[in-house]
Amino acid sequence: MTILITGGAGYIGSHTARLLQEMGRDVVALDTLERGYRDALDDIDLVEGDIADPRVVGKVCRKYDVASVIHFAAYKAVGESVSEPLRYYKNNVSGSISLVETLLEHDVRQIVFSSSAAVYGTPDGSPVNEDAPLRPQSPYAQNKADVEHFLASCDPLGLRSVSLRYFNAAGAHESGDMGEDWSATANLVPVVMKVLFGIEPMLEIFGDDYPTADGSCIRDYVHVDDLADAHVKALDYLASGGTSLVANVGTGQGTSVKQLIAVTESVTGRQLPHRVAGRRPGDPAAVFADPTLIRAVLGWRATRDLREIISSAYRWHERHPDGYDR
Ligand SMILES: NC(=O)c1ccc[n+]([C@@H]2O[C@H](COP(=O)([O-])OP(=O)(O)OC[C@H]3O[C@@H](n4cnc5c(N)ncnc54)[C@H](O)[C@@H]3O)[C@@H](O)[C@H]2O)c1
């Protein structure tokens, strides 16, 4: 019985595939490689193909005797989703519907889905728990809310799902040989790394007049290997008969941009050039998770702190300045 990992050649998918492999589980990745890397998977089986292609998905299900799925495959750039909504709805929403249809035809009824804290938009306050109203502010965030909804509505078909709402995924594998592609993301940690390695001249702090202790925005940074572990726990929960669930995956700790800069300088021993720029429209002042539910139901908690996030990301970029080969 094999675990199918869609988007397995991407950042979080490859770390999760590696963890499952290290645990002795059978895994197979399905990825178009449009935004992923074969090298990220090392010797893990990879099928190059699209989640929306029922022939490919069906063939993988039969060949590998797939029992459960972790569904990472999606486009994830918020700005791009605003300029290219059709592409985003088609790949992220229609693709997920097609995937689930094929899975059900092959009697695969357990799925863990990559959702996002972006579904909360600007929450009324933080920590934010799963009962907070959903206010997606981009096509990307709406895609996540739509797929969560769709999965929940498939319960009567016997599908059981765990939708994990990630906060800010960051960091890299401890080996220093797997990590995030900094060319494809505007997230804070990769941008910090670009500045440290001279790709960008300066880090811009978007606003230091927010109602937070030091005026800069607060987010919840989760180490990618802790995230991977949350997926394993979600799979085990479903395998032991757990009912469908939506849960935050965050540390519960808010970190401001200025705190992150200070930790980066302390961990790397290097100065991080930065300057304050204006606020970005739509940036909430503070968003961090209430992780009570995931602790209680899945027994998951983050075990790595911000220092490990920064040191592992630094190691990855130092050892692989050009990332993975295409
Ligand atoms: N990185 C974050 O901070 C974050 C936060 C919240 C949610 N997420 C979600 O987690 C998931 C994984 O994110 P990531 O950071 O690893 O992204 P990523 O872009 O590194 O990985 C996504 C992978 O999916 C593949 N893919 C895309 N569409 C596909 C399709 N139709 N068929 C097969 N493969 C396809 C891409 O080639 C890529 O390898 C995404 O769904 C993303 O929206 C990420």
Describe this structure in words.
The model has no long low-confidence stretch (mean pLDDT 97). The two termini are 30 Å apart. The longest helix has 21 residues, at 85-105. The protein has helices spanning 11-22, 54-64, 78-83, 85-105, 139-153, 188-196, 224-239, 257-268, 292-298, 306-319, and strands at 2-6, 27-31, 45-48, 66-71, 110-116, 160-166, 168-170, 203-206, 218-219, 221-223, 245-249, 255-256, 274-277. Helix 1 links the parallel strand 1 (2-6) and strand 2. Strands 3-2-1-4-5-6-11 form a 7-stranded parallel β-sheet, with helices on both faces. It has 326 residues and is an alpha/beta fold. It folds into 2 domains: 2-171 and 221-250, NAD(P)-binding Rossmann-like Domain (Rossmann fold), CATH 3.40.50.720; 182-219 and 253-288 and 304-319, UDP-galactose 4-epimerase, domain 1. It contains 10 helices and 13 strands. Helix 1 (11-22) packs across helix 7 (224-239) and helix 4 (85-105) packs parallel to helix 5 (139-153). The chain is 38% helix and 17% strand. Residues 6-7, 9-13, 30-36, 50-52, 72-74, 76, 91, 95, 114, 116, 166, 168-169, 187 line the site of nicotinamide-adenine-dinucleotide.
Could you outline the blueprint of secondary structure elements for this entry?
Elements: E1 2-6, H1 11-22, E2 27-31, E3 45-48, H2 54-64, E4 66-71, H3 78-83, H4 85-105, E5 110-116, H5 139-153, E6 160-166, E7 168-170, H6 188-196, E8 203-206, E9 218-219, E10 221-223, H7 224-239, E11 245-249, E12 255-256, H8 257-268, E13 274-277, H9 292-298, H10 306-319
Parallel strand pairs: 1-2, 1-4, 2-3, 4-5, 5-6, 6-11, 7-10, 8-13
Antiparallel strand pairs: 9-12
Helix pairs in contact: 1-7, 2-4, 4-5, 8-10
